């Protein structure tokens, strides 16, 4: 069959293909009499009802858990419902890795979000199809075609470690980006979804991470309607997402997965017809965390009655017991099961579909790689640019420093697939300026006491070599037998082999021997380790050995004796990785090193790590700075510091969240030391959450927010620093001056939070972002100067690129509403690309919901009075804007 590309750009081709019959074997149960669930002329709901009616109670219980077993007599294959595509297909091996979700939001580009969603759904199908080719009996976790993304919780507090997974702090921006992403994932055919999107976590959920399994939020009716629910309403009503995930925490005393909101708001008010999945083990939390129910049967019955159809976990194993005890009926179960089976029919998992022909070659295709680069470039936010330091000149000598210049994890972010040939900032800048003009020193670690991959500058293939890195001999067996299938130099030993392998090798079927020398920056006490996750029960033990000068210094046994290291779990591993082992270097001479690594365990990182003395590392950064005209410092965080419920307890970090917004002290000292050399300093933040560092703002010559930029991150950053890409991203959150300016993290009231309700001084405002060109705005016009409440209007404005280089502008519309307690709020936006000197008129709609505001009782109304419509490249008061006045008459009450 010829290669098949299914994209939104060719709907007529798709329609022709889908019209062709897809033949499948008749299930055993339907051999003697036709089964209605196989009749394609019936609706998915009618077919699902027939299918469920043929299941036993035990089968029903099993199908309501995320690892749904096969029912061969009905033709149902095994199906793993758990799959993640936050910013690319995650945890299934190789994939196109786009910028982390917060970076996607920084593009402020809804059309781009739709393209990304469509590309992800294509790769998801390709991954699913490949899994079925490997095992036709069904698919396991991470290989389905329904996806537990996007995360549309509001990033209400910058301390939340999972804020990186969201689209920022504003409900309007979040809702619009989510709708485009969902449309891209699901496609336009309601009878055949390319994938099923699952907005999460419904509804009031944004930390603290260590408390999430038992935390209750008494959200006010105002905050619920004004902040926490609008993006979910957009995702369901406008995006038509066919699934939704309920959260861990409780809301007004109800665990979220049995909240009355699931029925009252989601189904009754918004008309949601799809299925609800629980966050993983949240039904068990109703017993062990919230302690509301005595046992699994009681909790399961309550959740199912509330509308939680699918359990991510095993608590629903107690369903038969719940039925026997009279806590729930089979008719109650059937309601949930019919939703789940209708979804499987709509995904083409019962009949098959033309999507089954999408080949594995679509995974990280050239088109998707190009899209990842474009997205990373669009996400770049230029925070400051004193004296037009940027773009850098091609003749400059550059010192690249900082822990994120060559760190895989800070390209990936969390919930990630494995990037193919990731682009590191260090390598990209060497390409841009030539290696001879770039000096490099990693400098400080992310934070003192944290293990980090041994930087390439301290590794060489041999004592007399000028080549940095270690010699890697790759064997296609687990015993280092025979001649290596591949030999190469690996600059740094830090890899993500999760569910994949080096090209030409099989996952869990290879071994690597690295040899060379390691040269410490100073004598002293170090800790040497190899980052490998200790296995889950029943898995084989990790197999790695490290020798220095012929002495065996690291093995799983030696690491176990050294203690526990829980810094890297990220909520995703049952046991912490192997701990580093104490080791003392008595000199700064090259020391032979050998690593024997056998790939026997599916872990997410495999790296030669150390904890080294910080002062000599900073000295190295200073020496590199002295050889340069400009220092480019890649600093910030990593998903090993901020993320989902992980055992991290460094200063400023707790359990995945942050207790400080400042740059970690070790990095701060490094920047102060290189600044003292007098060289120009460009700071590139690679983070999910914000770094609030007034010293950097005051002392750096330029600051670029680059996020966790995905597989093309290095190239996108280099293109931006050199001017090949003119930055046009905008902040999707406020960068405050200090954490002390914020209310308690545990307080879910929105008073004093986000640009809408914060009244103090900020470091950088929501919507901020600079360009290498300038934009001007003409006076705006409104389609009507007076409007009856409930009616819609349109605001139009001409924006011009008045500078000398091409660039993108994000036209932002803010509304000041009569009597509103909020600052002017975002009510429209669009991203436009303008040639130098080009002008364009853009129009933004103002519908009743955008014009409305929420009362303390939670009612939403459009009120009479005078409205100010402001348009520009940022918030009024922070950016130059133009405005027009709109008068609204009467009052209109809007539905929930």
Task: Based on the model shown, name its key terms.
six-stranded mixed beta sheet, 22% strand, Immunoglobulin-like, alpha+beta, seven-stranded antiparallel beta sheet, 896 residues, TIM Barrel, 44 strands, Jelly Rolls, PA14_dom
Quick summary of this structure?
This protein is α+β, with helices and mostly antiparallel strands and 896 residues long. Helix 3 (57-63) packs across helix 13, helix 16 (425-433) crosses helix 21 (713-722) and helix 18 runs parallel beside helix 19. Residues 1-23 and 568-574 have low confidence and may be disordered.
Task: Give a description of the structure.
Residues 465-625 form the PA14 domain. Keywords: Hydrolase, Signal. GO terms for molecular function: alpha-L-arabinofuranosidase activity; xylan 1,4-beta-xylosidase activity. With 896 residues, this protein is of the alpha+beta class. Among the domains are: 42-362, Glycoside hydrolase, family 3, N-terminal domain (TIM Barrel, Alpha-Beta Barrel), CATH 3.20.20.300; 449-611, Jelly Rolls; 773-894, Immunoglobulin-like (Sandwich). Strands 15, 16, 17, 19, 21, 22 and 24 form a seven-stranded antiparallel sheet that branches. Strands 11-30-29-26-12-13 form a six-stranded mixed sheet, with helices on both faces. Strands 14, 18, 20, 23 and 25 form a five-stranded antiparallel sheet that branches. The longest helix is centred in the first third of the chain and has 25 residues, at 110-134. Residues 1-23 and 568-574 have low confidence and may be disordered.
């Amino acid at each position: 069959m010829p290669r098949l590309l299914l994209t939104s750009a060719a709907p007529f081709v798709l329609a022709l293909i889908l019209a062709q019959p897809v033949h499948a074997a008749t299930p055993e149960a339907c051999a003697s009499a036709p089964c209605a669930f196989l009749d394609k002329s019936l609706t998915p709901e009618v077919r699902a009802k027939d299918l469920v009616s043929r299941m036993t109670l035990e089968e029903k219980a099993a199908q309501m858990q995320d690892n749904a077993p096969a029912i061969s007599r009905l033709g149902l294959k095994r199906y793993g419902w758990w799959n993640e595509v936050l910013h690319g297909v995650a945890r299934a091996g190789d994939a196109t890795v786009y910028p982390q979700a917060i970076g996607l939001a920084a593009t402020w580009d809804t059309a781009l979000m739709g393209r990304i969603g469509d590309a992800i759904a294509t790769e998801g199908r390709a991954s699913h199809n490949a899994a079925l080719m490997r095992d036709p009996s069904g698919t396991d976790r991470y290989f389905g075609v329904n996806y537990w993304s996007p995360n549309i919780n509001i990033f209400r507090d910058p301390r939340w470690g999972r804020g990186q997974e969201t689209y920022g702090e504003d409900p309007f921006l979040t809702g619009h980006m989510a709708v485009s992403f969902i449309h891209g994932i699901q496609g336009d055919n309601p009878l055949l979804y390319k994938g099923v999107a699952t907005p999460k976590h419904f509804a009031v959920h944004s930390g603290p991470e260590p408390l999430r399994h038992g935390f209750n939020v008494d959200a006010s009716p105002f905050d619920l309607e004004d902040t926490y629910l609008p993006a979910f309403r957009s995702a369901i009503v406008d995006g038509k997402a066919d699934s939704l995930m309920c959260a861990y925490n409780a809301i007004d005393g109800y665990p979220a997965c049995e909240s009355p909101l699931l029925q009252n708001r989601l189904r009754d008010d918004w008309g949601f017809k799809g299925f609800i999945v629980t966050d993983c083990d949240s039904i068990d939390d109703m017993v062990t965390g919230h302690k509301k129910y005595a046992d699994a049967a009681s909790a399961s019955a309550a959740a199912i009655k509330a509308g939680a159809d699918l359990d991510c976990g095993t608590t629903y194993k107690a369903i038969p017991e719940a039925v026997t005890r009279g806590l729930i009926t089979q008719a109650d179960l059937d309601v949930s099961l019919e939703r789940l089976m209708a979804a499987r029919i709509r995904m083409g998992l019962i009949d098959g579909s033309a999507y089954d022909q999408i080949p594995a070659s679509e995974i990280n295709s050239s088109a998707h790689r190009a899209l990842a680069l474009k997205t990373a470039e669009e996400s770049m936010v230029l925070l400051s640019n004193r004296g037009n330091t940027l773009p850098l000149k091609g003749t400059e000598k550059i010192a690249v420093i900082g822990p994120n210049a060559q760190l895989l994890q800070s390209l990936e972010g969390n919930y990630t697939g494995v990037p193919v040939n990731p682009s590191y900032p260090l390598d990209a800048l060497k390409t841009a300026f030539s290696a001879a003009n770039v000096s490099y020193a990693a400098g400080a670690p992310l934070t003192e006491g944290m293990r980090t991959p041994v930087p390439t500058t301290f590794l060489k293939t041999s004592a007399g070599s000028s080549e940095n890195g270690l010699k890697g001999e790759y064997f296609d067996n687990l015993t280092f037998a025979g001649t290596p299938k591949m030999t190469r130099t690996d600059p740094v030993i830090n890899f993500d082999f999760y569910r994949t392998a080096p090209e030409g090798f099989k996952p869990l079927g290879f071994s690597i021997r690295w040899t060379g020398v390691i040269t410490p920056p100073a004598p002293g006490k170090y800790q040497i380790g190899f980052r490998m996750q200790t296995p889950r029960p029943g898995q084989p033990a990790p197999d790695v050995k490290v020798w220095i000068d012929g002495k065996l210094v690291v093995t799983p046994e030696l690491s176990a004796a050294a203690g526990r290291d829980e810094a890297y779990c990220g909520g995703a591993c049952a046991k912490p990785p192997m701990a580093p082992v104490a080791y003392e270097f008595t000199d700064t001479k090259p020391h032979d090193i050998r690593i024997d690594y056998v790939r026997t365990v599916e872990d997410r990182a495999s790296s030669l790590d150390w904890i080294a003395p910080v002062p000599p590392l900073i000295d190295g950064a200073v020496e590199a700075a002295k050889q340069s005209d400009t220092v480019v410092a890649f600093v910030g965080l990593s998903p090993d510091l901020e993320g989902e419920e992980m055992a991290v307890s460094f200063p400023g970090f707790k359990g995945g969240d942050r207790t400080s917004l400042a740059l970690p002290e070790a990095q701060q000292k490094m920047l102060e030391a290189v600044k003292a050399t007098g060289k120009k300093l460009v700071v590139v933040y690679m983070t999910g959450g914000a770094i609030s560092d007034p010293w950097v703002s005051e002392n750096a010559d330029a600051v670029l927010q680059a996020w966790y930029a995905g597989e093309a991150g290095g190239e996108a950053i280099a293109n931006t620093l050199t001017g090949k890409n003119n930055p046009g991203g905008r902040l999707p959150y406020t960068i405050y001056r200090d954490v002390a300016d914020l209310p308690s993290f545990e307080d879910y009231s929105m008073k004093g939070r986000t640009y809408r309700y914060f009244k103090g001084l900020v470091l950088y405002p929501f919507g901020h972002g600079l360009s290498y060109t300038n934009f001007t705005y003409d006076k705006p016009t409104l389609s009507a100067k007076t409007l009856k409440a409930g009616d819609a209007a349109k605001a139009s404005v001409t924006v011009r690129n008045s500078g000398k280089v091409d660039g993108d502008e994000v036209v932002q519309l803010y509304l000041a509403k009569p009597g509103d307690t909020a600052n002017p709020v975002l009510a429209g936006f669009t991203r436009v690309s303008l040639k130098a000197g080009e002008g364009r008129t853009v129009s933004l709609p103002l519908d009743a919901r955008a014009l409305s505001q929420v009362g303390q009782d939670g009612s939403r109304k459009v009120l009479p009075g005078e409205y100010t419509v402001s348009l520009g490249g940022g918030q009024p008061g922070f950016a130059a804007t133009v405005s027009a006045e709109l008068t609204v008459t009467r009052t209109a009450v809007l539905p929930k």
